[in-house]
């Protein structure tokens, strides 16, 4: 009731984001740039059944990683079309045979890449996002530099591209103020696989580049370079091999997205941004079942006008229908116009296809 009253106030809290002013020190890269998404939908027939045959740790069944109840990917792709239409192609990396029912995969800007096209069959199926991200640079035809969008991220301004590339065309590395915890401060049993992976990656980076306090990367899109990714995989070959052979996130894994950003900065292939710009890029909402708290986060975000937004699924096992409605209304207000690659297709038509070998 409180939320309904607040939403009815004269001052709209869900206005379209205004273009942020980021100065004139940056210039967009003139080379072709692609976007790569990783995505999966656990409501596809057979997905959870197959996943459950491999589960050993209850944390591996966390639906936050595989749920697509808000259709955020559809709105994220709309945000690309609306705010950074200069993107050459959009690659969607997912497990076979999944394709979003609304997506026209024949559209010239869209390329669906199934895991078995870029990953060895001996490590499939995989439910380990670290393993999948470590293969993104193997996508055939991918641009030399590409932007990695997770499926819960939105491009909120045309200025986002300027905030991702330096004037000389190198990527900006956007870091958070938080510092990564080291392995000796973590419990290998109780600590989250994400924090353990960050600590493992920090330890790996310390071997060639020395020990130092390393900061988290922001929640937001990041630019990767194909040559840097290839060199990174050679430099840390044992760590990548271990990670790729882990069907789920393991305590000995590394986080490739974190590694790619820091490795590029250490080698001079990318430049660490100032915190003011990184804060402009990062917008973050933890979507939780407490309606008023989620509403407040969205209202605060709307006042900040970040260049990108990450909508993190923190629903737990049972999403609150009121929060789901709140979020769907928000997404529709932000990006109401369908992208040219959207189509009307009933899920039942997709379900008729045999399900086999899903691997995220």
SSE topology:
Elements: H1 2-7, E1 33-38, H2 47-52, H3 72-83, E2 90-94, E3 110-114, H4 129-133, E4 145-150, E5 153-155, E6 172-173, E7 175-179, H5 193-209, E8 215-217, E9 222-225, H6 226-235, H7 237-244, H8 256-267, E10 271-272, H9 275-281, E11 284-287, H10 291-304, E12 308-313, H11 321-334, H12 347-351
Parallel strand pairs: 1-2, 1-4, 2-3, 6-10, 11-12
Antiparallel strand pairs: 4-9, 5-12, 7-8
Features:
Spore Coat Polysaccharide Biosynthesis Protein SpsA, Chain A, three-stranded mixed sheet, 360 residues, 12 helices, alpha/beta, disordered N terminus
Give an overview of the whole structure.
There is one protein chain. With 360 residues, the chain is of the alpha/beta class. The chain has a single domain (32-351), classed as Spore Coat Polysaccharide Biosynthesis Protein SpsA, Chain A, CATH 3.90.550.10. Helices cover 32% and strands 14% of the residues. It contains twelve helices and twelve strands. Strands 3-2-1-4-9 form a five-stranded mixed β-sheet. β11 (284-287), α10 (291-304) and β12 form a beta-alpha-beta unit. α5 packs parallel to α8. The longest helix is centred in the middle third of the chain and has 17 residues, at 193-209. The model is unreliable at 1-21, 23-29 and 346-357 (pLDDT under 50).
């Amino acid at each position: 009731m409180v939320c309904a009253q607040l939403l009815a106030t004269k001052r709209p809290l869900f206005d379209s984001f205004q273009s942020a002013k980021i100065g004139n020190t940056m210039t967009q890269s003139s080379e072709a740039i692609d976007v790569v998404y990783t995505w999966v939908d656990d409501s596809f027939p057979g997905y959870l059944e197959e996943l459950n045959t491999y589960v050993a740790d209850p944390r591996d069944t966390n639906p936050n990683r595989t749920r697509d109840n808000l259709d955020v990917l559809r709105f994220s792709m709309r945000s690309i079309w609306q705010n950074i239409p200069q993107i050459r192609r959009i690659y969607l990396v997912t497990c076979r045979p999944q394709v979003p029912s609304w997506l026209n995969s024949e559209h010239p800007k869209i390329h669906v890449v199934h895991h078995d096209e870029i990953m060895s069959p001996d490590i499939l199926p995989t439910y380990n996002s670290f393993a999948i991200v470590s293969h993104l640079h193997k996508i055939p035809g991918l641009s030399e530099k590409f932007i990695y969008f997770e499926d819960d991220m939105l491009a909120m301004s045309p200025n986002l591209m300027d905030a991702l590339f330096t004037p000389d065309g190198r990527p900006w590395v956007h870091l958070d103020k938080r510092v990564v915890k080291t392995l000796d401060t973590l419990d290998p049993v109780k600590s989250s696989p994400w924090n353990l992976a960050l600590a493992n990656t920090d330890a790996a980076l310390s071997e060639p580049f020395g020990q130092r306090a390393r900061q988290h990367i922001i929640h937001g899109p990041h630019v990767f370079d194909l040559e840097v990714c290839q060199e990174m995989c050679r430099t840390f070959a044992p760590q990548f091999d271990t990670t790729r052979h882990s069907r789920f996130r393991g305590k000995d894994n590394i986080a490739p997205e974190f590694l790619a950003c820091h490795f590029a900065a250490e080698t001079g292939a990318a430049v660490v941004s100032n915190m003011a710009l990184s804060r402009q890029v990062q917008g973050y909402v933890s979507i939780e079942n407490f309606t008023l708290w989620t509403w407040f986060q969205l209202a605060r975000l709307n006042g900040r006008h970040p260049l990108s937004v990450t909508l993190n699924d923190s629903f737990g096992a049972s999403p609150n229908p009121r929060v789901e409605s709140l979020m769907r209304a928000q997404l529709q207000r932000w990006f109401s116009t369908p992208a040219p690659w959207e189509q009307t297709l009933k899920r039942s038509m997709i379900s008729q296809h045999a399900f086999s070998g899903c691997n995220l």
